[in-house]
Design a protein that fits this description.
By secondary structure, the protein is mainly α. The protein is built from 9 helices and 2 strands; from the N terminus they run H-H-H-H-E-E-H-H-H-H-H. The relative contact order is 0.14.
Length: 244
């Protein structure tokens, strides 16, 4: 039973975790990784103190439900923060006029936009290169200090963590998209001045290729600074789970 409780939290965590929950990763591989991590944690963590009532069907169902809830909440926190780069790139592509340029994302099985997919792939490579997957594993390990197995789940604390992670995702997304937004704002001002000087000019048709050129150039500049952005995001995620 203690081993099954650890497996419930770990599998729930990996089921929503970025990278590991991508559909391009076979289910057998994801299940194997979850089992290996469960065996590793079971050898390190202290055995859960359970009462005889916990071994009944009702008691076991409640305990497993708590562990699944805790694992899903922790995985959702990491997933929301991980989505900051994707959302920031989506804001940029919206300004570039690529809102309808949708493609299939093989990692999630959903529709996305080309620039956002590029940023997501580069971020994933950089995240793994600085041992970000070790941080995700440490997240599960540290969670047993705040939420021991077999104990009542702190629903209010978990909910607060998910909300804070969502707010942080939006903040980091706006920071990432800030150069693009500033560039397009400046372009809008320039095109507005040109429209006043030359009213006969079709500003809408003239601005569309300029928006693409400006957007691609600014995207390359932001992409070059993505490494430092990944480091800041990872540091925040590490400190957040330490405090949690």
């Amino acid at each position: 039973m203690p081993f099954f409780l650890i497996a419930s939290r770990v599998m729930a965590f990996f089921s929503v975790l970025p990278l590991f929950a991508w559909t391009m990763l076979p289910r057998r591989v994801r299940l194997s990784i979850s089992l290996l991590v469960t065996i590793f944690f079971a050898s390190l963590l202290p055995r859960a103190q359970l009462s005889p009532a916990d071994y009944t069907w009702l008691g076991a169902a409640l305990l497993v439900g708590r562990e699944v809830l805790c694992g899903l909440a922790l995985g959702m926190m990491a997933r929301l923060v991980f989505m900051a780069v994707q959302q920031g790139a989506m804001i940029g592509t919206q300004q570039m006029g690529f809102a309808d340029a949708g493609i299939f994302d093989p990692s999630t099985g959903e529709g996305t936009r080309p620039i956002a997919l590029l940023f997501q792939m580069v971020f994933a490579v950089l995240f793994l290169s600085i041992d970000g997957h070790h941080l995700l594993l440490m997240t599960v390990y540290r969670s047993y200090d705040a939420f021991p197995a077999g104990q009542p789940a702190e629903v209010a604390l978990l909910t607060q963590g998910v909300i804070e992670a969502g707010a942080t995702m939006l903040l980091f997304a706006l920071k990432l998209a800030a150069p693009l937004l500033a560039g397009f704002l400046l372009l809008a001002v320039i095109m507005g001045v040109i429209a006043r000087v030359m009213p006969e000019m079709n500003i809408l048709m003239a601005s569309m290729p300029l928006r693409v050129v400006v957007g691609m150039g600014l995207s390359l500049l932001v992409l070059g600074t993505l490494n430092s952005f990944v480091v800041r995001l990872t540091d925040w995620l590490d400190q957040f789970f330490i405090l949690a």
